[in-house]
Design a protein that fits this description.
Shape: elongated
CATH class of the largest domain: Alpha Beta
Strand content: 15-25%
Radius of gyration: 26 Å
Structural class: alpha/beta
Number of helices: 10
Helix content: 40-55%
Keywords: Hydrolase, Membrane, Metal-binding, Transmembrane, Transmembrane helix
Protein name: Metallophosphoesterase
InterPro entries: Calcineurin-like_PHP (IPR004843), Metallo-depent_PP-like (IPR029052), Metallophosphoesterase_sf (IPR051158)
Number of strands: 12
Oligomer: single chain
Strand order of the largest sheet: 1-12-2-3-4-5
Organism: Dactylosporangium vinaceum
CATH superfamily of the largest domain: Metallo-dependent phosphatases
Number of domains: 2
Largest sheet: 6 strands, mixed
Pfam families: Metallophos (PF00149)
């Protein structure tokens, strides 16, 4: 299975780089030497991506950033070069058709063997112009994306109405953060900034809805340690995300609990007359630790409002069957790099913000970190302050 997956990755990466070589090397070079240099660079860059994916996990944690930074930056730049060059195929075709018609209308020299639509110099100028345009646009997107990804998350105030909310809880504020993704490129300083920002709003409750880490407790325990300083008037809570199941979930459950953040594992607690529930992520099903909505939600008083913490928005389909009033989720990163959000929308019912699934309100935070490329373009990180109000 792994061999098949690797073969598919290599095939896709190879195909993309062949297209980039055609547009950025073949269409822009006029000498054999330049084309050879460009071809070698394309092959090397194609190998960088699978090498990064392999080495960023195989190397000791202290060395992972050395390969992660260049590899993931090239992955982001490759993505935007592919998108911009694909979009530029439309004006490329229009210009080529115009040039062909103009050449066909021009007088033909009977002593020339060139076809009327063949003009190497014009094709070279066109190729270089479009390659330069794609390069500038792609580099700008990546540069802005790095700035947003590495900067402080936005604080978003999100008012939400719950019909069953007790009058005494009107204005109750939940600080929601997800997808912190501690790992090779985000460490202790990232956690400290998030804790500082959440503590600064003096929330009633803190909810961390999964994907805290990309690595083991041995590697990332010190980076997660500042979570012990989180302040919520009624506590801080956590549910597992899919990445916890890639990183030794049981160790992380124990570690997070030891930091004073309660892990809700298919269970619920009472908070001033509101049921706060949490379910495990769908990825836990493969190791016998999946979500159990019945365990978390059955037998409760239907007159009480229930807020569910669940990492993936798609879990709202099950939540709705159990009468959940509001689900708080992450996972999507808001798409992380536009237009990737369009693909995310094919897999999740809500990509970012407030929506509804089968009658249950669902709020999806874009998350405070990133996965893979240290780039967030068109989907800046956020920490959301959900403010509950009665209907």
């Amino acid at each position: 299975m792994i061999a098949i997956l690797l073969a598919v990755v290599l095939l896709v990466v190879g195909g993309i780089h062949f297209y980039l070589w055609k547009r950025l090397v073949k269409d822009t070079t006029s000498t054999r030497r330049a084309r050879i240099v460009g071809s070698v660079a394309a092959v090397v860059l194609a190998l960088v991506i699978p090498a990064t994916l392999a080495l960023s996990r195989a190397l000791p944690h202290s060395q992972q950033a050395l390969v992660a930074w260049p590899g993931y930056l090239w992955l982001a730049l490759m993505f935007y070069l592919l998108v911009t060059l694909a979009l530029l195929e439309i004006p490329r075709l229009a210009i080529r058709l115009w040039q062909r018609r103009r050449a066909a209308a021009a007088p033909v020299d009977p002593d020339s063997s060139d076809k009327p639509d063949f003009d190497p110099s014009r094709r070279l100028v066109l190729g270089r112009s479009l390659a330069a345009t794609a390069g500038v646009l792609s580099a700008s997107a990546v540069g802005i994306g790095v700035y947003q990804a590495m900067g402080a998350p936005n604080l978003k105030r999100v008012p939400i109405r719950l019909a069953k909310l007790p009058a005494s809880m009107n204005g109750f504020r939940i600080a929601v953060v997800s997808d912190i993704h501690l790992g090779p490129l985000l460490g202790r300083a990232h956690t400290e900034r998030i804790v500082r920002m959440i503590n600064g709003v003096d929330a009633d409750l803190v909810a961390i809805v999964g994907d805290l880490v990309d690595g083991s407790v041995a590697e990332l325990g010190p980076a997660a340690e500042p979570l012990q300083d989180l302040r919520g008037k009624h506590g801080a809570f956590f549910v597992t995300g899919n990445h916890e199941y890639f990183s030794g979930f049981q160790e992380w459950v124990d570690e997070v609990n030891s930091l004073g953040v309660r892990v809700l594992r298919n269970e619920r607690v009472d908070v001033l007359g509101l049921d706060l529930a949490g379910v495990n992520d769908l990825s836990g099903e493969g190791v016998g630790d999946g979500p159990d909505f019945a365990k978390a939600l059955d037998g409760r008083d239907a007159n009480r409002p229930v807020v569910l913490l669940a990492h993936q928005p798609i879990q709202a389909h099950d939540a709705a069957k159990h009468g959940v009033d509001l689900q708080l989720s992450g996972h999507t990163h808001g798409g992380q790099m536009v237009p990737f959000n369009l693909l995310v929308g094919l897999q999740q019912p809500i990509v970012a913000g407030l929506g509804a699934v089968d009658g249950t309100q669902v709020y999806v935070t874009r998350g405070a970190g990133f996965w893979g490329p240290p780039v967030r373009f068109g989907a800046p990180p956020d920490i959301s302050i959900v403010e509950l109000h009665g209907a």
